[in-house]
Amino acid sequence: MKTIVFKAGSRGHADHGWLNAWHSFSFAEYHDPQRVHFGLLRVLNDDTVAPGMGFGTHPHDNMEIVTIPLEGALEHSDSTGGKGVIGSNEVQVMSAGSGLRHSEYNHSKTEPVKLFQIWVFPKVRNIKPGYDQRLFSPADRVNKWQAIAGGALAKEALQINQDAYFSLANLDAGKSLDYTPYLKDNGVFLMCISGKAEVAGETLERRDAVGITDLQNLSVKASEYSELLLIEVPMQ
Fold this sequence. Notes:
Layout: E1 2-6, E2 12-15, E3 19-23, E4 41-49, E5 54-60, E6 64-71, E7 73-78, E8 83-87, E9 90-95, E10 100-106, E11 113-120, E12 130-135, E13 146-150, E14 158-159, E15 165-171, E16 176-179, E17 187-199, E18 202-205, E19 209-213, E20 218-233
C-alpha cells in the first residue's frame, strides 16, 4: 500500500469575492507540478459561491463532471437541455463528451452554496454529452458506503463514462468501515469532509485527504463523527 497525504491547508486557494475556492489539484491560476492529478482524477474543487452569483455559460468537452452540493442549492443549465436545481443530498453528473456549454449559479439570493465539483477523465472520448441528477437518502450512508456515481459495476449509482466509483459515508465515532475496490488496479482518494478519521496509518481531519494505491482493501475508523467522500479511480 502506498499513500500520499493532501492536508487541507496545503491545497491551492483562490478568493474571488463571489467565489471562495480550494483546489486539491492544479486548477486555473493554481499550479503545483506535484499535484496535477491522482490517476484519472483531475479536479476536486471545494467551492463556496456567494448568493445570486455563479459561473456563466462556458464550454467543456471530454470530461466526466460530478457535482456534490454540501449546503445550499445550485442552479444548472446546459446545451443538452439538462436543467435543474440540486441541493444537499443530491448529486449531479455530466458527461461533457464531444462538447457542451453550461452555466451554474447559486439558486439562493441570500445564502451561499457550498459544493464539491470533481472532474475525471473519460473512458471513451467524444461520446454524446449527457446529464443526470438524483436525490440520495443520508440514512443509506450511516456507517456504510453509499455509491452515488460510477461505472457499470455500480448499477445503483448515477452512471458515468469511466470505471471510477464515488461513495459517501457518515461514520459514527468509534465505528470502522471497510472498502474493497470495484477493480483491483484502481486507486482510492479519500477525503474527510468533516470530523476526524484514521485510515492507512494517517489521521484525517476536516478536508484532509489521502490518495492510496496498491491496495486490496481499506479500513477507515472514525475518531469522532465523520463524513467521508471516497473516489476510486483508474490510475492510468
